[in-house]
Each structure stands twice: as structure tokens, then as C-alpha cells.
From TrEMBL:
E.C. no: 2.3.1.-
Species per Swiss-Prot/TrEMBL record: Lentzea miocenica
Family matches, as Gene3D superfamilies: 3.40.630.30
Entry annotated with the keyword Electron transport: no
A Gene Ontology molecular function term of the record: acyltransferase activity
Keywords recorded for this protein, A-Z: Acyltransferase, Transferase
Entries under Pfam families matching the protein: FR47
Domain N-acetyltransferase: 88-225
Top-level taxonomy: Bacteria, Bacillati, Actinomycetota, Actinomycetes, Pseudonocardiales
Protein name: GNAT family N-acetyltransferase
Length: 225
């Protein structure tokens, strides 16, 4: 199935029907042709445990596949709320700036980029409207150091875009924004809260705040170069 964005916004990926038949190389080639025709990314996502045959086929089709730990929230294991972390139905301008700086330093290590770089970037930033919930860890005297977003479809919520400024990592802030987005989702009636982690190392951050491994999300795109 290929989802197509009706208005502005991020383009979607293709995914296999579930339950569905066995995917074939011809299916993947056909979908990629259609994606090129539509001018959308040749992107695919699926859950490995429900469509295990697609991994080898995607590789054969020339795609690169990230196997991301897929985690679901165990609501009973959420930690106590942490001060200075709040969830909003608006999108403060810091959310995109901090996320952009965080994702420019992948992995979980600390780094030099911090409040000075954030404040410089904020001067150029413009606010955007939102349909999602956003969390910020906004510390007295330091400002917004970590951010995250939750997007909802029915009673299912996906947490995404968790990022901490490299200089502020390893203080529990990434875990705290994740936990507050999850708590907010439950308070607003969500029955299932999930996320996919970029690596097993990143998954540990989420496991510490009540998420548990439920499967593997496969995220595929054409090999670059
Ligand atoms: C992943 C990321 C959000 C984690 O943010 P963070 O604020 O450092 O997360 P936490 O502080 O909650 O946890 C990180 C580590 O610090 C440790 N930690 C937490 N509180 C701590 C404290 N008070 N003192 C020392 N260490 C602490 C945690 O135990 C964890 O250790 P681990 O490596 O053994 O798992 C951050 O590294 C990041 O922005 N990475 C780049 C963007 C990215 O990949 N985002 C995730 C996409 S899925």
C-alpha cells in the first residue's frame, strides 16, 4: 500500500498490507516506479515480525534497510513526572531548533553543541503550526534542552523526534520528555503508545522510562551513491 499525502506535509512511505500475501520483488519494483512517478521518496516501512520475507526482497531490490527496535509502553512502568518537562498542544519554536541540532549529532554521546548554538539558531527560526503534541524540557536558567513529539491516529500514539542538545545529554532529559509524552497520551485516552528507536543503544533510553521491546521496525530507502 502506498499512502499519498493530500495536502502539505511530510510524504508517506509504502508498507505491505497486513494480513497480506507474500511480497515479491516485482511488487517492490512496481511500488518504486509509482513513487518515482508521484515524485515521492522511494521509502518503505514494515514490521519484520509480521512480514519477515520482505527484508531479503528489499535488499535484493537495492534498498538499504534500517532495523529499528520497536517499543511499546507498559503504562505501569512510567516513572514519576520530572519537574520542568511539559507537554503542549502548540509547537514552540525551540522544538524544531533543538531537534535539528540533536539529530545533527546522532547517537547518545555528549558533545559541545549546546545553548549558544540553540540561541543563535532561534534568531532565524519561524514558528510552525501543529496537529501534534510536543514536549519540552525547559530548565530554569538554561531554557529548552530536550524536545519530542507525539502523533495520534485513533487511540494509537507514536512518539517521535526525541532529541537532546549534545551538551545536555546524559541528564535523563531525553527519557523524561518521552515519559511525559507517553503520560499525556494516556491521559488523553490513548490505548497504545509506541515508538521506534534508531539503535539498540537509543532503545535503552526508552526502556528505562517504561517502554519494552515488541518487535523490529524495518525502514527502507534506496542505497545512496
Ligand atoms: C537519544 C537521545 C534523545 C538521548 O537523550 P538524553 O537526554 O541523553 O537521554 P537520557 O539522559 O535520558 O539517557 C541517556 C543516558 O544517560 C544516562 N543518564 C540518565 N540520567 C543520568 C544522570 N542524571 N546522570 C548520568 N547519566 C544519566 C542514561 O542512563 C542513559 O545511559 P545509557 O547510555 O546507559 O542508556 C540523545 O542522545 C539524542 O538527541 N540523540 C540524537 C537524536 C536521536 O537519535 N534521537 C532518537 C531518535 S529514535
Amino acid at each position: 500500500m502506498l499512502f499519498v499525502q493530500a495536502g502539505d506535509g511530510y510524504p508517506y512511505y509504502a508498507r505491505p498490507r497486513h494480513p497480506g500475501g507474500k511480497p515479491t520483488l516485482a511488487d517492490v519494483v512496481k511500488v518504486r516506479e509509482r513513487q518515482r512517478e508521484l515524485g515521492v521518496p522511494e521509502a518503505f516501512e514494515w514490521v519484520h515480525e509480521t512480514t519477515p520475507d520482505l527484508y531479503d526482497i528489499a535488499i535484493e531490490a537495492g534498498l538499504e534497510v534500517l532495523r529499528a527496535p520497536l517499543l511499546v509502553l507498559d503504562p505501569d512502568r512510567l516513572p514519576e513526572p520530572r519537574p520542568h518537562v511539559r507537554v503542549l498542544g502548540t509547537r514552540p519554536v525551540e522544538v524544531s531548533v533543538v531537534a535539528q541540532l540533536a539529530f545533527s549529532s546522532p547517537g547518545t554521546s555528549q558533545g559541545d553543541v549546546g545553548v549558544a548554538e540553540r540561541d543563535a539558531a532561534l534568531l532565524e527560526a519561524t514558528p510552525m503550526s501543529t496537529r501534534h503534541r510536543h514536549a519540552v524540557a525547559d530548565l530554569p536558567g538554561e531554557g529548552v534542552l530536550a524536545v519530542g513529539t507525539a502523533q495520534r491516529a485513533g487511540d494509537v500514539v507514536e512518539v517521535a523526534g526525541i532529541g537532546t542538545l549534545p551538551a545536555a545529554r546524559r541528564r535523563g532529559l531525553g527519557g523524561a520528555v518521552t515519559a511525559e509524552l507517553a503520560r499525556d497520551a494516556l491521559d488523553r485516552g490513548a490505548k497504545l503508545v509506541f515508538l521506534s528507536a534508531g539503535s539498540p543503544e537509543i532503545a535503552r533510553v526508552y526502556e528505562r522510562v517504561g517502554f519494552r521491546l515488541a518487535g523490529t521496525a524495518c525502514i527502507a530507502s534506496p542505497v545512496v551513491g
